[in-house]
Amino acid sequence: MAVIVTNADVESLLPSLRQQAYNCMDSALTVGIHETLAAKLAAKPDAALVYAFERAMQGPAMTMAVRGIAVDEAAAGQVLGRLVMSEARVTAAMRTLAAVWMGDAAGTSDTAEIRRGLEAGRPPTGLNPHSTKAVPALFYGALEEGGCGERPYKRAAKRVANAEGGSPTPGSTANEDALLMLQARSPVVGVMAHLVLRARELRKLRSFVGARRSPDGRLRSSFNVGATTSGRWSFSKNCFRDGLNFGNIPKSARGMFVPSEPGWVMVNVDLKQAESYVNAYLCNDANYILDHETGDPHAKIAMTIYGHLMPLGALEAAWVRQPHPAVPKGKAPRQLCKGLAHGTPYGIQERKSSKLTGIPIRDIVTFREGFFGRYPGVLARIEGMPERLAASRRHVSLCGRPHVYTGHPRDPDTHRAALADEPQGIVADVLNVALWRLWRRHDVGAAAPHLRLLSQGYDSVLFECREEDVAAARLACEDAFNIPLTAESGATFTIPHDFGQGYSWAEACS
Question: Residue 494 carries which DSSP code?
Answer without folding.
Answer: -
